[in-house]
Design goal:
mainly alpha; Lysozyme; two-stranded antiparallel sheet; 2 strands; disordered N terminus; Secreted protein; signal
Length: 194
Amino acid sequence: MNTIIRKSVLGIAGLAFTGGVFAGPIAAHAEARPVDAKPVAVQADKPDMGKLIPHGVQGTQSKIDLNDEQTANAKAIIAATKKAGLPERAAVISIATSLQESKLENLGHLGEKNDHDSLGLFQQRPSSGWGTPEQITDPEYATLAFEKGLKQVDGWQDMPLTEAAQTVQVSAYPDAYAQWEQQAADIVAQHWNN
C-alpha cells in the first residue's frame, strides 16, 4: 500500500517539474488556496457608466420590467450596434429611444392606435423612407437604420441623449427620450460583454 501511494505522489510531483524547472502556475497557487475554496469566476469588465451616461441623467427616470422578448430585442440592438462598429453610448441612445417608442416591443401595425404607418422597435415609417415593413420590423435592420441616422448627426457623441435621439426621430415629444437613459445604460452595462 505504501509503495502505491509513494509512486502516486512521485508521479504527481513529476508532472509539476520538468527537467528541474517548475512546469506552471497551477501547482504554485494550489497550495496557497484553501482546500474548501471555490473557483473564482472571471467576468468581463462592464462598460464604464461615465461613458454610458456622460452628461448624467436628465429629469425623472422611468423604468419597466422587461420580459424575455424585450430583453432579446435589447440584446439585438446591442449586437447591431457592435456590428456597426459603434461604441456603447450609441447602444444606450438606441435602447432609450426604443424604450420610448415601443417599450422594446417589435410593434406591428396597431390599427387605429397606429401612429400613421409606424412599425417596429423605433416606430419607423415605411412612408418616410426607413425601409419596407419587413425591414423595419427586423430588430437588426431597424437598429442599423436608426444608428445610420445617428451617425449623420454632428457631435452626437457629445449631445445629451434626448437631443441626439430627437434629431434622428423628429418626435412630437422631443424630451421624452431622457427618462429612459438610466435603464438603457443599465441594460447596456449588463449585456454589452455577454
